[in-house]
User: What shape does this take?
Amino acid sequence: MVNEHKVSDVNKNIEMVLEIQDLKKHYLLRAGMLSKKKRYVYAADGITFSINACETLGLVGESGCGKSTVGKTILRLIDPTDGIIKFRSVDITNLSRFELRKYRREMQFVFQDPYFSVNPRMSIGSIVGEPLENYKLARGQKKDDIVEATLNRVGLSSEHMEKYPHQMSGGQLQRVGIARALILNPKFIICDEVVSALDVSVQAQVLNLLMDLQEEYRLSYLFITHDLAVVEHISHRIAVMYLGKIVELTDRETLFVTPQHPYTQALLSAAPIPDPTARKERTLLLGDVPSPVNPPKGCRFNTRCQYSEQRCRVQEPKLRETAPGHLVACHLHEAS
Ligand code: SF4
Assistant: This one.
């Protein structure tokens, strides 16, 4: 027996920090001069998941699948087309910018490229301390003391306060981004490709820092990345996205050992493995990624799936629980 859109009750006593239900973000395309028909980019199209206290949910998929749109929509950096966003049980979907302000303090974002996410004309001390001033929490020496303590916590020192972004390395600047997110004492942080611009050795340092901070501050993360090795390192559970939809969601071990969706299987089989003598079965990805303006009917993966059959081209598979806590959107798994 399978349950539609219903996660197992095994974690029902755990504090839920974020819950999104059927979240959609459709962008209207500018119509051509002669066109009367409206066209949309279906960037996120019915996303449902939750994140518990002190948990990291990895959101993984190819470039352009809509994962960054999901992150920005959750923080209301862009407004959703439809769906519900709940933060600590409060529905924040339609709050005004003013009403949202007190919740935004507890929900922070760390961006992909550290060089473009900071103001190059501001000193590091000003960049990290700015949120304290914006929320009128501290000024002057008190602010400087908090900034220094926060920089120390992310592996930087008071000497960095007087420096400017161009005087910092990529890894140091990403620590600055983390310090700026951390300084308001948030409960939830969205990390969007935060290590993809860094060298591999620096990536590990930043990931380990984020994991240490999670334990210390009981943080919850939505960790957005295209990199399977990164998502495996840091996540407790992982959601796999394809063309605006979640196709599989489960805990890290289950996803990497027994993936069920053909797209997840293809992603994992294409990932490099450390042992060159080890062999693994390849699951082929056919063709190119279709356009999110005109996604395939039925299952969106049907144009690239080696198991595609007639019903896949007409009927969209729902995300269903096939085992406790394991959700899959594929007709092959509907009868289990
Ligand atoms: Fe492939 Fe059909 Fe499953 Fe989609 S529903 S992943 S096309 S088998």
Summary: The first strand starts at residue 3 and ends at 4. The CA atoms of residues 53 and 123 lie 33 Å apart. Residues 200-217 form the longest helix (18 residues). The mean pLDDT is 90.
